[in-house]
Write a structure and sequence with these properties.
Blueprint lengths: L13 E4 L4 E4 L7 E4 L2 H21 L18
Antiparallel strand pairs: 1-2, 2-3
């Protein structure tokens, strides 16, 4: 059985009401913008967008993550 060490990265996430729901940005992840019809939906969209953003960084090998932790991305908002 392999042992894995979990590292949790935290990102400030901004939920801005836009009249039709919420626009979500993450200042430390340039270009990441998503939205949701309500706060719950916006949180789910944010988690998915952050995960996709980080996975793209891993794929392009432009990441500060340690090599042994590249397979374990968990997003909590």
């Amino acid at each position: 059985m392999k042992k894995y060490k979990e590292i949790i990265y935290q990102y400030e996430t901004i939920f801005d009401p836009n009249g039709a729901g919420y626009t979500v940005t993450v200042p430390k992840l340039p270009g990441l913008v998503t939205e949701g019809d309500n706060l719950r939906g916006a949180r789910e969209m944010a988690k998915d967008a952050i995960r996709c953003y980080l996975e793209a960084l891993l794929k392009d090998r432009k990441t500060p993550f340690a090599k042994s932790h590249r397979e374990h991305i968990r997003i909590t908002i």
